[in-house]
Design goal:
By secondary structure, the protein is of the alpha/beta class. 21% of the residues lie in helices and 26% in strands. It has ten helices and 14 strands. It has a seven-stranded mixed β-sheet. A three-stranded antiparallel β-sheet has the order 11-8-12, covered by helices on one side. Bound molecules: S-adenosylmethionine (SAM). Its EC number is 2.1.1.137.
Length: 381
């Protein structure tokens, strides 16, 4: 497994690599959504390269940071422009500052001025610590569901990250759309959040907000919002159960289950439907190793690229997005001339975007039905 994609949280040390998580493991609650039930989550280990950076972060910043479930970043960030949505006091922005290096740039966006002021007080400390000739970070006060009101320009960013933030916000669709707009085609959205296995009844929302999970998203809604925004289907990197610590809340929510998960997806370029190249299947070979992923690139929980091994990626739009992404030099892409299409159509209920700026979640809101079509190309026998 790639060590560059194996970070763990510096604040959550337990190792649950052996756990097999299933939201249905206790009893079948009749929920048709259970995208996590087949996941054997791995709490990926922090590579030594990332641990060494975390050790260099100012202790006051670490002390004030949110107890995030994961602190993980995608590889190959050197020279990239990265945006951290909901950066808080900036721990991840400073870690990313080191990862992008002298020629990269990191923007942290948060709506909380006090946290941003605290983060700004530590900008020069980290530039000096990392040996940068000048700071490469900038903190922007703004709403992550209104990125169009910030200085961040469309098609200008290589990578967007976000850590334990989207579940706070009601208008998740606007956050995902905003992230997609600022990314360049082939750009990567890599983010951790809390997901729920069924809509949260309205009467529990206030109770759950104290647990930071009142706004947890259903993963089908994530797929819907991401693909509608112009991303590839999100790929699940890793997941683990989110343990509700308050007994009263646990009793109240009953069979409702939560998971913390990291997804990654890539911005597809806008093309006219009739000329879409997304359905051309490719065989990919991981040819040039990424730093700290010399043997294997841990792309997601079901897809790992072994160096030199030829692989047919089940989702042709992922192969296409990778061919535009910063990973493109690491792969060779061979189109499969003779392939057949397998189409899967799923019906999901969509949660409408919120009409206001309320911080509560969207459970209990009336839902409309939408279909998600997944096309997979496989080589003909
Ligand atoms: C749980 S903290 C996570 C902070 C940081 N990502 C970390 O992992 O340490 C959530 C952050 O989201 C920010 N936030 C919540 N709603 C926001 C919004 N609409 N726009 C920008 N930031 C927001 C909060 O101010 C807070 O800093």
């Amino acid at each position: 497994m790639s060590s560059s994609t194996e970070p763990k949280s510096p604040v959550n040390e337990q190792d649950d690599t052996e756990t097999t998580y299933s939201v249905n493991e206790e009893e079948d609650d009749g929920s048709e959504m259970d995208g996590f039930s087949n996941v054997k989550p791995k709490l990926l280990k922090t590579p030594s390269i990332l641990n060494a950076i975390i050790d260099q972060i100012h202790p006051d910043v670490i002390a004030k940071s949110h107890q995030s479930n994961f602190v993980l970043f995608p590889p190959k960030l050197e020279g990239c422009t990265v945006v951290d949505l909901g950066c808080g006091v900036g721990r991840d922005v400073f870690i990313l500052s080191k990862l992008v290096g002298e020629n990269g740039h990191v923007f942290g966006v948060d709506s909380d001025k006090e946290q941003l002021d605290f983060a700004r007080q530590h900008v020069h400390y980290h530039a000096k610590k990392f040996g940068l000739s000048k700071t490469n970070v900038e903190f922007i006060e703004g709403e992550i569901d209104r990125l169009e009101d910030t200085k961040l320009k469309e098609n200008s960013v290589d990578v967007v990250v976000s850590n334990s933030v989207v579940n706070y916000r009601r208008d998740k669709k606007a956050i995902i759309e905003g992230a997609c707009k600022i990314l360049k085609p082939g750009g990567e959205f890599y983010f951790s959040d809390v997901y729920v296995n069924r809509p949260i009844p309205a009467e529990y929302q206030e109770l759950l907000s104290g647990e930071y999970i009142g706004g947890a998203l259903r993963w089908e809604d994530l797929i819907l919002y991401a693909t509608e925004a112009g991303f590839t289907q999100p790929r699940l990197v890793t997941a683990k159960p989110y343990v509700v610590t308050n007994d009263d809340i646990q009793k109240a929510i009953g069979k409702t289950k939560f998971v913390s998960a990291i997804f990654r997806c890539f911005k597809l370029p806008h093309v006219e439907a009739e000329v879409t190249p997304f359905n051309i299947p490719y065989q990919l070979t991981y040819e040039t190793p990424l730093v700290s992923a010399e043997d294997e690139f841990f792309f997601d929980h079901s897809l790992q690229f072994k160096l030199g091994e030829l692989l047919v990626v089940d989702d042709p739009s992922i192969a296409f997005a990778l061919s535009l992404s910063r990973y493109k030099e690491n792969f060779t892409f061979d189109p499969i001339a003779d392939a057949e299409t397998v189409t899967v159509i799923e019906t999901v209920e969509e949660i409408p975007a919120a009409q206001d700026n309320d911080d509560t979640n969207n459970g209990g809101v009336s839902r409309k039905t939408t279909t998600i079509t997944t096309t997979t190309m496989i080589p003909k026998e």
